[in-house]
Each structure stands twice: as C-alpha cells, then as structure tokens.
Model the fold of this input.
Amino acid sequence: MKKGFVITIATVALITLLVMLATALHNSYLNMERALLEPQPLMYAAFLSDSIANDVNSIVGPEISFVETNTSMIITIEDIIPKENVSGELSNYENFVDAMMTNAQLDLNFSNMSSTMIINEDYYYETEEEAMLFTSSPATDAIEYQINVSVFGTRTNYTGFAFNESGDLNVSLRYTDLSGTITESGAIFSNQLNRFEVYYGNESFVYIDVGDVGGGDGSLQITTQNAGASFRWNVMLPLPEEDNRIGYQYDATVDYVQDNIRLTRMIGKY
Done:
C-alpha cells in the first residue's frame, strides 16, 4: 500500500511538473511572438516615412547623394533653375496617400513647405525662382567645389573667377552653352565673394558666386535672369560630427498613427 501511495505521489508530481513546463513554454512562445510582432508597426511606419521622402524628393528635388571617405564627405546636387511650381503635384500626392491608408491614420503637412532643404542638420540648400544657394552659418568649411552648368543660350560676354594660389577653397568649373564650353579651376578665399558671370542678349545673365555669399563663408550661389540653367555640383566637406545625421529634411511633416504606435517627424532621409 505504501508503494502504491509513493507511485501516486510521484505520478502527480510528474504531471504537475509537465503542466508547469508546458505553461512556461507557452508563455515563452507568447513573449517571443509579442517581441517579434510588436516592432512591426513601428518598422512599417519608418519604412513608409522613407518611401514618402523618396516620393517628395522626386517631385520637389533636388537629386542629392552623399559619399563618405575617411577624411571628408562629398555632397552632390543636381537641379534646375528656374524651379517649377509643384504645389499641385504635392496636393495630388497627399490625396493619393490618404486614399491608400485603411488600417492607419497618415497626415502629410505641406503647409509650411518652403524652398529650403536642411542637409546634415548644418547646411541649407535654398532655391528661389531664379536662384539657388548652398550655405551654412557662419561658414560651410567647404574644401572644394566641382561645378557643372549648362545653359541654352548664346553668350555675348563673360568674366571668369579671380583665382589666387594662396586661397583656401578650390573651385573647378565646367560651363557649357551654345557658344561652347568654358573650363576653369583654381583657388579662392572662402571669406571673399568671387564671381563667374556670363551675359546673353535681352539682359539675360548667369552669375556663379563662391565664397562669402548668402550669410556664410565658403558658400555657393547660382543666379539667373531670363536664362534657364541646369547644374550638377558637388562639394567636399569635413566629416560631420558622430551625432550628426547624414541626410536631409524638408519643412514638411509626416504623422503616422496605428494603434499605440505614432511616428511624427519632418519629411526627409534619416
């Protein structure tokens, strides 16, 4: 009888142990499932934000890319002036995105959209109707500019940069219009305004200013009057601080809400 009692106790203990183990395994599975599923809405929100940034950039511009080396960073920008009015396209895009959202709330706010793009938190790329400006305050600390400009026009006259071998900022220019191609390269002083200017008929002109322009030393500005210009330029800059993001933001916001997940930030690449 004692033997049967011992066997019964052992059996109950074993069953209890198996139940506890099964419960622990089930809870572990639920915790693992929760750990895998809970980040998904946030990951989707970040993915959607990046996709919106790409779409807005394709509408507004400019084409922009970043390359890092061990000692410097190179930003390349491609754009045109004068700029087109894209407010209608942005409005259509906002309606398109709103129509796509069924399980989440997404609000795009372009009401404060300006002509300024913030780059790497330190630099500003601004476009107006007939001008573009790359600058930073108090200085960009630019090391070198490589500038390519194309204009559909026959020039009547031009004046090149005034280079100085003692300068601290290297500039290379390739300027092409219907009269041919002009190439220049040399050094200038980043704290002084230095201008390359081209004149066309009907009071048309193109100015390329490098140096002290737009409120910051080492800046670049291209200005036109009655002359359309397309350009591609790159600037070599010091490496950004480790806590500075490499990317860009527009003065527009995206607000995404799904269940208990919310992501609100400026539209751009982070």
Residues 120 and 244 are 6 Å apart (CA to CA). Confidence is low (pLDDT under 50) at residues 25-39. The chain has one domain: 39-269.
